Amino acid sequence: MEFKRPVSVLVVIHTPKLEVVLLERALHPGFWQSVTGSHEGDETLRATAMREVHEETGIVATPDNLLDWRLSNRFEIMSQWRHRYAPDVTHNIEHVFSLCVPETINLQLSTREHSAQVWLPYQAAAARCFSSSNRDAILMLPHIFSSQK
Questions:
Q1: CATH architecture classification, 7-147
Q2: pTM for this model (two decimals)
Q3: pLDDT tens string 18-28
Q4: Which residues is 25 bridged to in the sheet?
């Protein structure tokens, strides 16, 4: 069995009005999150983020429209996902990105991973996230987005 690498990306997809899309995990109803995914092979973290956005939503992000926050979070891997990692791995390092789209859009979900989508104002999206690092990133969005204008 090939184990997942304990390095991942989190991509907050939002509109200029700070509406954020959340995806509901197919195998864990009620677990809402932004796009996430594991770093694979020798790809850059930006390439991982672009790949995951496309796989999970159908959106084709480019290096120019994907913002690297240069922020990483270290967190304990939840017990229900620990079996995907080598036996001695207990923590993951998550790198945060964002992607601004012009307006809310209907995404092409990977039904293997997600069962539903919802666009919410950033505060409501943050409140719905099951992950504290995802919630914190969404709450930082107004500051990050305004500094990029």
A1: Alpha-Beta Complex (3.90)
A2: 0.94
A3: 999 999 999 88
A4: 114
